[in-house]
Amino acid sequence: MINQSDLRDINTGLLMRMILEKAPISRRDLARCSGLAPSTVTSITSVLQENRYIHECGWATSKTGRRPILLDINPDGGYFIGVELNSPTSKIGVLNLSTALVHTVSYRTVTDNVDSCVNQLVEGILDVLKWCKESDKSVLGIGIGATGLIDPATGSVIESTNLGWRDVPLLKRLREVLTLPIRIENEANAAALGEYVRGGQQARMGNMMYVVIGDGIGAGIIISGALHIGGHGSAGEIGHMAIDPTGPRCRCGKYGCLEVITSGTAMYKRYMEEPGSSELFSALDLITLANWGDPIAQRILSESGRLIGMTIGNIINVLDLDTVILGGDLISTASVLSTGICEAALAAILPTARHGVEIRTSDMKMHSAVIGAATLSWKQIFA
Fold it and tell me: pTM here?
C-alpha cells in the first residue's frame, strides 16, 4: 500500500514533469490534465514555489472571471550533473532545472585499471561541483551513463568491454566520496533519453532508438515514451547481434557480432591490414580520409554502413519504431558511414512503414548521454 508521503512524492513528480513539458500552465489546467484535486495541485505547487523549483510567470487569458496565474520551471532553482563514462573520452555536464546544458568538460579516460578510472571520475565530478559552488549553483543530484551492461538497481557495472571492467560496484564506490543522490544507467540508454527529452515533446518520437557508433556499437530504446531496459537490463545491445557466424571472435565471446565487424575498432583494423593504406591514429581518421576521396576508407565505411543499416532496419520492422537517431564519435551528417547506414536501413524497412520512419543523425553535438544522465537524476529527485 502506498502511504501518504509516497503518494505526495508521486504527485509532485507528476506535476513537475507536466510543468516542464507544458509550461506556461495554470494550476487549473494542471488539475485538469493530471486528474488531481485542485486543492492538491495548489498545495504541491506552493511547496515547489517555496523551494524555488517553479515560479509564476504571468497570467493566462480568460473570457470570464479572474485570469489564472501561469507557472513555469525556475531554471536556476537547481542543477544536475550528468556524466558520460566511456572510452576513449568521458564527459561531464551541468544541466539546470529546465534541462538546459550550462557547462561541460571532457577528459581522456584512463582504462589501464579500475581504481585509476574511478578516481579520475571522482576528481572530475568534484571539479565540476567546485565550479557549481563558485557559480552559486545548487546541485540536486548526479546521473551517470556508463558504457557497458549496467545493473540499475545496484549501480554496478556488470561488464564493460570498452572500459575493461567486470563486476565493478561503481555506485558503492562513488557513495564513499559523494553525498548527493546518484543514478547510474547504460550510456546508450542515457543518450536515448537525452534525445527524447530534447525532441520528444515537439516531435513524433514515442517509439525511438538511439544508436551510438564508436569503438563499440550500442543502442538505447524508448517505447511509448518510456526507456526500455528489458528483463535483465541488456535491451539495446545491438552490437552483439550475430550477423556472420563465421566471422571473428567478439570480446563478448561470440563470433561474428555486428560490433566486431563494423565498430570503429574493427574498421580501423581492417583499414590497417589493407595493402597501400595510409598511416592512421584512430578510426576517426577513416572519416577524414573517406571525405578526401581515399577509396579504401570509402569502401570500408560503405560496407560497414550497409551492415549496420540492415541491422537497424530489421529492428525497426520488429519494434515498429517512429524514429532512429545516429550518434557517437564516428557519426557525422555528411559521412560515407552515416549515409550508408540511412540508405541501408530504409531499404530494409517494410514498404508499408518506410514513409513513416525518420532516420537521422543527432544534432546534440555529442552531449546526448550527458543530458540524458542528468535527466535520469532529475527524474530520481522528482519521481
Answer: 0.89
